Amino acid sequence: MANLPKTNGLGFFEIRLESIGGLGANLAGKMLAEAGVMGAGLNGVSFSSYGSEKKGSPVKAHIRFCAADARIRDTSPVERPHVIGIFHENLSRTNNVISGMYEDSIVLVNSKKTPEALQTQLKLKGGTIAVVDATGISLEEDNRVNMAMLGGLFRLCGFLDPAFMKGVITRSLEKKYPGAVQPALRTFDRGYDEVKFRTFALPEGESMPDFVRMDTPVLGYETQPIGGMITNPGNSILKDLSISRAGRMPHFADDKCIHCAACDNVCPDFCFVWEELPDKKGRPQMFLQGIDYQYCKGCLKCVQACPTDALSSELEEEGYADAHRVAHRFNLVI
Fold first, then answer.
1. Does the N-terminal or the C-terminal CB of the chain have fewer CB atoms within 10 Å?
2. Topology, domain 13-200
3. CATH 3.30.70.3270 segments of the chain
4. Measuring CA to CA, how many Å separate 201 from each of 12, 197, 204, 316?
5. Would you say residue 64 has pLDDT above 60?
6. How big is the chain by its Cα radius of gyration, in Å?
7. Which CATH architecture has domain 242-324?
8. pTM above 0.85?
9. H-helix or E-strand containing 175?
């Protein structure tokens, strides 16, 4: 039986995965638990929590390990993790993804950025940041982000055997998807090998933030306004779906567009911005102006529908969406 590097007061080593629907965090959590129980001889449990079933919505996966002779009687969400896996770095815009971490916790982030840049972005005071470009690896190997993140997580959890995990990957894919076995194994290996680490010591005289319980509703029976007034409506104007993109996004070439609206017909989130202008004969016609990337989750249905290659699927680069966003103009009537 493997020895756990550290445990909490109940004897658990705990891992929390922060992700969005579609990146495979739920499956990654199950595979981690299987590797700990079947491969390392530990006792373990894995479960996930979901919001909406819509692809791109927040997902958390929770994994606990303890000694084989101990019982797991705690099935509550992991609130004080020893390891945090962040499958999409932009989740930090809307979620407190490092909530509950200890001074010596390790945070693995799917990102191209340096650990120093991520320390500022995550507002991390102390702890270790590990970085791996899981999205880039998965696109190059034509595989899934979760395989690269699994490789990174196995590097962080030295008590887990990567050889056992590769056996699990092979057995789960070879019968139905034999062609996917080698890409998955390469993606796992690259995630394991390409992790970069940096440990940050707490500044002198400072301490880690006080623990605040996650997922506490802002408006409850004690805090809601009189009359049940909705003070923060969940309408599309306030929503930012950009964190749902998983590495690719549509680019718009105005010179190739025939303004046929095929893209708009298939877009599930009304990302395309139109304006009525006169055509060559002076008749009013709707012309496509561009894409409001705030609402684009990267489904790429528009690229498939476009008949002229005015829309193309490209790797998302830092800052491109902000620089090329054509914002909707809403006329609000109160």
1. C
2. Pyruvate-ferredoxin Oxidoreductase; domain 3 (3.40.920)
3. 242-324
4. 24, 13, 9, 33
5. yes
6. 23
7. 2-Layer Sandwich (3.30)
8. no
9. none
Report the candidate in 85, 70, 99 with the shortest Cα–Cα distance to residue 15.
Answer: 85
Task: Say how far apart CA 79 and CA 99 lie, in whole Å.
Answer: 7
Average pLDDT over every residue of 230-255: 78
The model's confidence at residue 334, banded by pLDDT at 50, 70 and 90, is very low
Q: Which of 202, 239, 280 is nearest to 58 (CA)?
A: 239
**Pairing state of beta strands 248-252 and 13-20?**
unpaired
Under 8 Å CB-to-CB from 33, ≥6 apart: which residues? 44, 45, 46, 63, 65
Q: Choose among 84, 78, 110, 111: nearest CA to 98.
A: 84
Please give the pLDDT value at position 91.
84
Instruction: Judge contact between 111 and 264, C-beta under 8 A.
Output: no
73 Cβ contact list (under 8 Å, min separation 6): none
Q: What secondary structure does DSSP assign to 53-76, as a single string? A: SSTTSEEEEEEEEE-TTS-----S
Q: Rounded to whole angstroms, what are the CA distances from 247 to 66, 87, 128?
A: 36, 11, 25
Residue among 295, 317, 312, 294 nearest 255 (CA): 312
Closest CA to 120 of 200, 50, 183, 177: 200
